[in-house]
Design brief:
Low-confidence stretches: none
Order of helices and strands: HHHHHHHHH
Number of helices: 9
Helix content: over 70%
Strand content: under 5%
Largest sheet: none
Distance between the termini: 25 Å
Number of strands: 0
Radius of gyration: 17 Å
Length: 206
Amino acid sequence: MLGHVNWPAFLIAMAAVELTPGPNMGWLAALSAKSGWRAGLMAVAGVTLGLLVQLIAAATGASALLAESPVLYESLRWAGVAFMLYLAWEAFADTGSASAVRGGGPEGFRRGLIANILNPKALLFYIIVVGQFVDPKSGPVWGQIILLGLIHLAVAIIIHVGIVFLGAGLGTVLERWRTSLPARIGFALALVAIAVWIGISTHRPS
């Protein structure tokens, strides 16, 4: 079903998105620095479950969105490019000033779960970014979205757990690094490159 996927490109894109400074990354690092790795892992569990809910919601509605309509396909393709450019701007603009450190233990799990269930960007990510790697001719669209989304979740868990332990061990050092200007510029440029790649690689000849 996924024999058509460009795996290096897919895994690099997923890792780049997860490594980019954002609400989950900043909160997990700051929470772990304050409350320790156990609280951080509870939060990771909540974040992961919230993303799983979004993945299922995206997969159940993706078949219609990824139908063989040229106009709809082009709309989704350029939405994917625009979404990645938005993430690039968000990465550059994130100075960490809004990173609230709340939620140890069960509270951290609940906050991670609710924040990601209510985050429309997660739903859009699975539909218009992960969806770029779907080929309707290779099998059910919903099945491909689920499988690719689960791989993304595995990548996200590995990175989030790494952030938790780095945050617990390095404390504010990691937070200062991720909000430094060179790091923000680097992450933003990586996402711009992914946006360009999506625009080029998903073009369908007329």
